[in-house]
Design goal:
Rossmann fold, 14% strand
Length: 233
């Protein structure tokens, strides 16, 4: 795999697992992180010639611009952009009566606006890529058609907003860049918790294979899970 991949939120969890999986296949990986943590450190140690840590805060225009410059100094283009950075707020499980609107705003800034900010900044490099694909790591929590929760307002609403960005970008970039929202499943990460159903490393392997297939596709559902099954918007 001679692909150039930019991943946000790659310091740990799914982002780190994706960086490792892509590097194992020979890809050149730019791992966006606010701070290099142990998981990414170990991956970089194994793949020094393939994985580069890129300082990146998706809520900061100057940080995102600097990240683009850092990647452009290493590669003339990127083929895959994965917006993976996301948070779940401390008050995410609160009912409507006690939600914290500061947490809501922060969650939107990272999960929704951050992904759009990164996409806009990296789009010139992505457009120069080979069979380019933009992947927004979303969640079934952002599906209005399958909504079953009665809380988690900030997280669910932020992922629904990300899905709308996917739909709009899919229209805007049709025929030039494949655009997807991807639900990775319930993962055993800091966000998903120890009781989650899926191992992030195994899921990352499935996602990398899925992205390889979808990069060559110009049609098909734009909101899918890690096995390629269509999800309702």
């Amino acid at each position: 795999m001679n692909r150039r991949v930019m991943i946000t939120g790659a310091s740990r969890g799914l982002g780190a697992a994706l960086a490792d999986s892509f590097a194992n296949r020979g890809a050149r990986v730019f791992a966006g992180t606010r701070s290099v943590r142990s998981a990414l450190d170990r991956i970089i140690e194994r793949h020094r010639d393939r994985v580069v840590a890129i300082d990146l805060d998706v809520t900061s225009d100057p940080s995102v611009s600097a990240a683009v410059s850092a990647v452009a100094a290493e590669a003339q283009a990127i083929d895959i952009l994965i917006n993976n950075a996301a948070i779940r707020s401390p008050s995410v499980s609160n009912p409507i009566e006690t939600i914290d609107f500061k947490d809501v705003a922060r969650t939107f800034e990272v999960n929704s606006i951050g992904a759009l900010r990164v996409t806009r900044a990296f789009l010139p490099l992505l457009r120069l890529g080979s069979a380019p694909i933009l992947v927004n790591v979303s969640s079934e929590a952002g599906s209005i058609g399958a909504c079953r929760r009665d809380r988690e307002f900030d997280y669910c609403m932020s992922k629904a907003a990300m899905n709308m960005a996917t739909a709009l970008l899919g229209n805007y970039l049709r025929g030039t860049v494949r655009v997807l929202s991807l639900h990775p499943g319930w993962l055993r990460t800091d966000m998903g918790g120890a009781n989650a159903a899926l191992d992030p490393a195994t899921t990352a392997e499935a996602i990398v294979e899925l992205i390889a297939r979808e990069s060559e596709s110009k049609t098909g559902p734009a909101f899918i899970d890690y096995e390629g099954r269509a999800l309702p918007w």
